[in-house]
């Protein structure tokens, strides 16, 4: 998933905010709301002030920091007093607003000296800065969002523990002072039809991503404490594409990828159906740009993350997600491989999805991909793309065998390996040999490294082999095990013939299955591990 920062905003009207801004941290102005209307002369003064600030070069040290914070606090106090004194006369507090704007921009210079972040926190400036996110003038709130983005930019910090400490101090202080709640509340009142506010939406999402990068726990905190997930789901539902919709899809994927709690939370918010609706827009058309293509990939990343919890697999099946993925595959557009990936996630350890797949005639589409009949375009011609597709379709077929154990569906699945003179067994053995050769090459390389006195424990060696293709080879062996245990004489004879042609025996397959058996983890609990090992042991005994 890409995290590149594009600032190409489009002026499109997207009124997707489902509720009004909730001001829980009211700016001290007597509760009255009134946006400043700055006249032309004030705008000219502002532009002149900004130009002067850009030309100013100042050494950033503790003395400078104290000077900046003191000035900021004074301008903030002046603005509060002016607004309280002249609540219905914008002209009387406009100058103080411009001064406050200038000082917020001056504080961004601190991004060049992150070692001063702890001092910024100690000067108690964070609460004052964050409270401005609730300022009646959204322009001031936008200034704060930009400042937070600058201060939390990952490029500011060096890649070592000592340099990361100031960042953690700052982020901890921001979180303790309700930055997440205030950012999202402000986000809900921003209007995408205004170019400046559209840019502020992007900056808000960037800040959230920056906070998660420094403090991963923020990913769950922001979903627990705010309505960000609701906002993100609302954004990806909009049909029109823009840079903020793309970024919303990326942030949603980041929040989902390592959090089972967030995956379940989004599932309970009807998020599976929302993401399916979003990807359905591309079932018969391709994205028009690279940015839009990236957004579609983000959406499928979200879908695959959502399909980790069992309850979301059930929601996927009920929402006819299996049927949609098959339609996308049949249309042979750019989302083809992503649909296979989503089906693989949906059917892993979930028999109802496997049964639905067979019932809606998905076998023909799946085995066309298995036989290498995939749509051809610039992206698909890449060797790594085709390898990933092979690995996904092998995993999908292994899931089908694991989820459909008996009955007419099982017979329909097995019959695919008999038709056309067992061509699919031929293909299976072709993949078996290719991945077997890759694993052997990697094993020899690792053994050579050990001879060169490079220490490597067995677990690391095994993981290296998995990365080189061992996992796919193991799945192929499992599929062979299912076919062998069906006791179909024609298919057994074909497997034995192909093994013999490659100067191999049943023992070679058994060895792969045994290694798989011995390394099955207990992530799903000891009982599930025992069941999985018993199934593999059955194949080993049969061979």
UniProtKB/TrEMBL annotation:
Domain called Beta-catenin-like protein 1 N-terminal: residue spans: 35-145
Biased composition (Acidic residues): 10-23
Domain of life: Eukaryota
Record Gene3D superfamilies: Leucine-rich Repeat Variant (1.25.10.10)
Protein's UniProt keywords contain Nucleus: yes
Pfam families on file: CTNNBL
Ranges for region Disordered: 1-23
Subcellular location: Nucleus
InterPro entries: ARM-like, ARM-type_fold, CTNNBL1, CTNNBL1_N
Keyword annotations from UniProtKB, A to Z: Coiled coil, Nucleus, Phosphoprotein, Repeat
GO cellular component, as recorded: spliceosomal complex
Species classification: Eukaryota, Viridiplantae, Streptophyta, Embryophyta, Tracheophyta
Protein name: Beta-catenin-like protein 1 N-terminal domain-containing protein
